[in-house]
From TrEMBL:
UniProt organism field: Novispirillum itersonii (Aquaspirillum itersonii)
PANTHER family (UniProt xref): AMINOTRANSFERASE FUNCTION, HYPOTHETICAL (EUROFUNG)
Top-rank taxon, per record: Bacteria
Protein name as it appears in the record: Aminotransferase class I/classII large domain-containing protein
Domain called Aminotransferase class I/classII large: residue spans: 49-354
Molecular-function GO term, any one: pyridoxal phosphate binding
InterPro entries: Aminotransferase_I/II_large, PyrdxlP-dep_Trfase, PyrdxlP-dep_Trfase_major, PyrdxlP-dep_Trfase_small
UniProt cross-references to Pfam families, sorted A to Z: Aminotran_1_2
Amino acid sequence: MRDFALEVHFSHWEFKARYHMTASDAESLSVADLLALAGPGAAESLLDGWLGYTEPKGSPDVLAAVAATYDTLSPSQILCFAGAEEGIYAAIRVLLTPQDHAIVVVPNYQAAETLPLEICAVTGVPLRAEEGWRLDLDAVRAAIRPNTRLMSINFPNNPTGAVPDRATFDALVDLCRQHGIWLFSDEVYRLLERDEARCLPQVADVYERGISLNVMSKAYGLPGLRIGWLACPDTALLDRIQRYKYYLSICNSAPSERLTVLALGVRDRILARNRALIADNLAELDRFFADYPGLFDWRHPDGGCIGYPKYLGRDGVETFCHDLLEEEGVLLLPSSIYRSELITAPEGHFRIGFGRKGIADGLTALRRFLDRRGNSVTPG
């Protein structure tokens, strides 16, 4: 297996850096805060929970709570996992064979590219950076082969935050339907769009071969629960993936499932809180980038809680991120972490997170670094 570059990098720096400015999740909650938010009886339901094995598919109340977040699906069309990554891994392993071909829209979460590459031929279709990270349907159409079995998308996108318009999304679904292609859709940042009108349908709600991936980690800001899921109208496929899961986690943590039910019961309040924090943090970022004209190319992401600005300094983004981490303890992810074997990716970008509290302290350290460096980080 190829190294998971992002996780290798994070395993060394995520808990050592003084300012984690590239976090990909929204601000989390303590158990006490979640129980208080969930209201009377919440603490008792957690404390009364049984610490035995849970059902491999997910406990009935978890499946019902997750299914309620979709427009058309029932609990039988949900399969839970220990986080999103396990869901990606199991689905890719079940769906693809060496005789197949897959299409991956990039940039993307690394596993969406590297896991198919371990199995079969893969074509990357790049988002158009020069056009605001636009999805090019003509490029998707040209990539389709007679043996194309799977297409992987991720919107709001990691790391760009891009969201295609509804017409493009509908055309993509129609294209997959025309060719009988499974459409795997990573939707972990859905409901964090800047404009609610840009929020796309969940693929599993609109396409019979649609597979929607979601998790408690990103938009909800509860990664410590390690609860993710796949949603799909095709229960036969979910049964096959569940059989694969028996070689992995088998089942989820009982306390995590209980806390997930409580969190989804107050999902609107959690999401409203996170969207408000993101709006405040984006205003902070706007002020910061406005103070360094010519040094950064910054645009508001369409959704999610991460952005992908371009660094224009003469020293280059890799040196910039390395020196910033060494001198000020500010962690950013340079574009090398998002390198792709499928395309020549645009260079000079870095990922910055704005879903957590404390962004002002990190920006103060970043200002200190830039002001101290002066000419060495002037625009190229």
